[in-house]
Amino acid sequence: MQEDLDKTQPARRRRERRRTAPPDKMLYIIGGAFAVAGLITAVLLFQFVKGIVSSWSVTTDLPGIAVSGGGQPGGTPGAEGAQPEILPPSNELEARPWDGASRVTMLIMGLDLRDWEAGQGAPRTDTMVLLTIDPATKTAGMMSIPRDLWVNIPGYGYSRINAAYQFGEGSQLPGGGPGLAVRTVEEFLGIEINYYAVVDFDAFVTFIDLIGGVEIDVPERIRVDIIDKDKSILIREGRQTLPGQWALAYARARNSENGDFDRALRTQLVILGIRQRILDYPTEIVFEKGPEIWNTIISGVKTNITFDKAFELGLLAMQVDIQNIKRGVIGPPDMVTFATSPDGTQQVLKPITQNIRLLRDEIFSSGALIGPGAVGAAPVDLMVAEAATVALYNGSPTAGLAGDTQTYLVAQGVNIVEVGNAEQTTYTTIIDYTGKPYTIQFLVDLLGIQNTRIFNRFDPDSAVDVEIILGSDWQIP
User: Fold this and answer.
1) Which of 209, 457, 460, 467 could covalently link to 244 via disulfide, CB atoms 3.0 to 4.6 Å apart?
2) CA angle 394, 399, 403 (to 5 degrees)
3) What residues contact residue 268 under an 8 Å CB cut-off, 6+ apart?
4) Going by C-beta distance under 8 Å and a sequence separation of 6 or more, which residues neighbour residue 315?
């Protein structure tokens, strides 16, 4: 069955056409990015119930579906007609407290629908979006992370980033899937993540319908499939008000030229559309739909943020002008290349680390020497401005090489704070512990280091920002 969205149809008729049947009993988890708007803006609406739920401080589990494990009750995994097992939640990932004044960041995750359908254990993530807000500058940002990005997963080695959640759940690590996913993103990007959220697809659909749909300026017409329904719809170019199922299908569609990367951009459009809808109709939504929306949020979101902090974050998010919300997608050709995993079994996205760090800085920082704003600055000035502390270790067979290299680097303006020896290695390596992109780029260019020998090991407690291990390939110019 196919159906077109008529732009000329009155809003009342469009509302009457919405499906009112209860959502399917089988809950599918997708579209984690929707939690950004769903969690934050919806919590903002419920000021009148703040006193009742101000003690909300534990993880909210998704009803009817296993968030922390797989398997089927009384049957084999993937048995036809079996329902997902309801298991105890994973150990809650302890949030990094937000003081309300500094930058705050949340990782939004959605789980792969196909993994739930297959019933083969813990799922992978289908969507990852980082949301960040800076109270000082009233700026915000969103960064979408592709699921096939080839990264180091702490304790598991290199794999697609979407496997981090699966590994954490399957191994029952402290913090479970969210914990390992957060650690992986932190290490890769060199940032600190305060909170996480996972959202249920039914909650998202219900939420959109309760607020009267979401208005999106669709850049080009696209045909999308309604999830779990035997029909597709044509969403036309221009301003459209989409009901819940249509907005979900639009955000998840991959049938465009750039596949997952276009999908990430559409997800961001939906998030911004939800935010604007809340701003345009706050009184109607609060007083007519408030309790229903609140029940939808608390039943469909798994998170480690408390109500008080979510409420505070929601107030802050509403103060950010749309022009001050930066958006970015890690994608080709500048930030990733298409590749095959070392064992030849997987198609993956190989990150171009330095360019991804520039995007990170553009979105997650507010200083003058950031991203495109730093294009005209000299590399040495950018490096000095970061004030990175650097440790230098000799992993070559040449005695005294670290001391001689220290003299050379200090003369170039590098802040060497520690010198020592390391196990012998062939190739010179750089490790970034705190996220210093301009220092890393300066050292890469100066030392002629290959991109494959640059590693992110995010550790906010590290004694130094950057570590250099000299290999036998290094000679002082």
Assistant:
1) 209
2) 60
3) 33, 129, 142, 144, 327, 329
4) 44
Among candidates 414, 413, 394, which has minimal Cα distance to 404?
394
Q: H/E element holding 247?
A: helix 244-252
* Full set of structural domains in the chain with CATH: 2-364 (3.40.630.190), 379-470 (3.30.70.2390)
**61-65 LR contacts (CB < 8 Å, sep 24+):** 61/89, 61/302, 62/27, 62/29, 62/198, 62/200, 62/299, 62/300, 62/301, 62/302, 63/27, 63/299, 63/300, 64/25, 64/26, 64/27, 65/26, 65/27, 65/29, 65/116, 65/200
CB atoms within 10 A of CB 85: 16
Question: Which secondary structure element, helix H or strand E, spans residue 213, and what is its range?
Answer: none
Residue with tokens 């950004």: 36
**CB contact at 8 A, 343 and 158:** no
CB atoms within 10 A of CB 435: 24
Residue 257 has what pLDDT? Answer: 65
CB 356 within 8 A of CB 189: yes
Which amino acid is residue 250, in one-letter code?
A: Y
Question: Tokens representing 190?
Answer: 């060199």
Q: How many CB atoms lie within 10 A of CB 412?
A: 11
Q: What pLDDT shows up at residue 69?
A: 31
**Residue 381 φ/ψ, nearest 5 degrees:** -70, -40
Task: Note the pLDDT of residue 364.
Answer: 81
Of 188-202, 362-376, 424-438, the least confident: 362-376
Hey, is 350 helix, strand or coil?
Answer: strand
Q: Is the pLDDT of residue 9 over 70?
A: no
* DSSP assigned state of 98: -
The 3-class SS string of 263-325 reads: HHHHHHHHHHHHHHHHHHCHHHHHHHHHHHHHHHHHHHEEECCCHHHHHHHHHHHHCCCHHHE
Q: What is the mean pLDDT of residues 300-305?
A: 80
Q: Is 81 left (phi over 0), alpha (psi -120 to 50) or beta?
A: left
Q: If 0-12 CB within 10 Å is exposed, 13-18 middle and 19+ buried, where does residue 198 land?
A: buried
Q: Please state, in angstroms and rounded to a whole number, the distance separating the CA atoms of residues 334 and 328.
A: 12
Phi, psi (degrees; rounded to nearest 5) at 425:
-145, 155
Name 185's Cβ contacts closer than 8 Å, sequence gap at least 6: 107, 128, 130, 145, 161, 164, 191, 193
Please report which residue ranges of 123-229 form alpha helices under DSSP H. 163-170, 176-189, 201-210
pTM attached to this predicted model? 0.60
At 373 the pLDDT is 40
